[in-house]
Write a structure and sequence with these properties.
single chain; 253 residues; alpha+beta; GMP Synthetase, Chain A, domain 3; Ribosomal Protein S8, Chain: A, domain 1; 3 domains; KhpB
Length: 253
């Protein structure tokens, strides 16, 4: 994602085109900030735009660059055509991810506005992974009880990514250090539950939780010789069963 600023939208766009060395027809321009008061109530004095090469332009550029680099016959198993096609696929995937990430960020910005929550959000993405970090003085309002509001926003963000061609991404939304603290809480819950299973001699079923939180529970008890874990139920009501192992390591019904 390439951002450019200027005294107005036209000026920011002109600076971006000059920097990239392309014409207006070869790019897609998204207005990030028109100037004045931003979506979150933060005062800005300049306009800001995002400029991305159109997909066909990226393919042509990659093909030209690759052809220029390969000047000698290839003796390895990867041919010129293979390398060109690989770089084209990588560039097309990056273009798709950039568009999907931009749509997701815009969606979340609208959601925060609807909730009347002031703050900021930042994101990193690549290799089918996207991490979005919220910073706000009203963290509790955005997190919700046991993280339900934040988890709901994450589920909606996954839908936006899917609508833009990104399937099964590793997406994580975080507010401050909530996810890290929540993971510590879940680990303590896992150990306490394991103790209960051993002392009572019966299985315990934990309340439904999102995939990320179930993963923390599974990981915490993965090496435990006394208990096993199993995800049960269907989304969004999928929870975890913690059961007792027998002396030979088999699961006890």
């Amino acid at each position: 994602m390439t951002l450019f600023t200027g005294k107005n939208i036209e000026d920011a766009t002109a600076q971006g085109l000059a920097s990239l060395g392309v014409t207006r027809e070869a790019v897609e321009v998204t207005i990030v900030e028109a100037g004045g008061r931003s979506f979150f109530g933060l005062k800005r004095t300049q306009a800001q735009v995002e400029i991305n090469l159109k997909e066909q332009q990226v393919i042509q550029q990659v093909t030209t660059e690759t052809t220029a680099v390969i000047t000698e016959p290839q003796t390895a198993s990867v041919t010129e055509d293979d390398e060109v096609q690989l770089r084209v696929r990588q560039s097309k995937n990056q273009v798709k991810w950039d568009r999907a990430a931009d749509a997701t960020m815009n969606y979340l910005a609208d959601a925060l506005g609807a909730l009347e929550i002031e703050g900021s959000l930042d994101a990193e993405w690549g290799h089918n992974t996207m991490n979005i970090q919220f910073e706000t003085p009203t963290e509790g309002l955005l997190i919700g009880k046991h993280g339900k509001t934040l988890n709901s926003l994450q589920a909606l963000a996954e839908i936006v990514l899917a609508q833009n061609g990104i399937r099964h991404p590793q997406l994580m939304l975080n507010v401050g250090t909530y996810r890290e603290k929540r993971a510590e809480t879940l680990e303590r819950l896992a150990y306490r539950t394991a103790d209960d299973v051993v002392s009572l001699g019966q299985t315990v079923t934990l309340e439904p939780m999102p995939p990320y939180e179930r993963k923390v529970i599974h990981a915490a008890l993965a090496e435990d010789e006394d208990v096993y874990t199993e995800s049960i139920g269907k989304e969004p009501h999928r929870g975890i069963l913690v059961g007792l192992r027998s002396q030979n390591g088999d699961e006890v019904e």
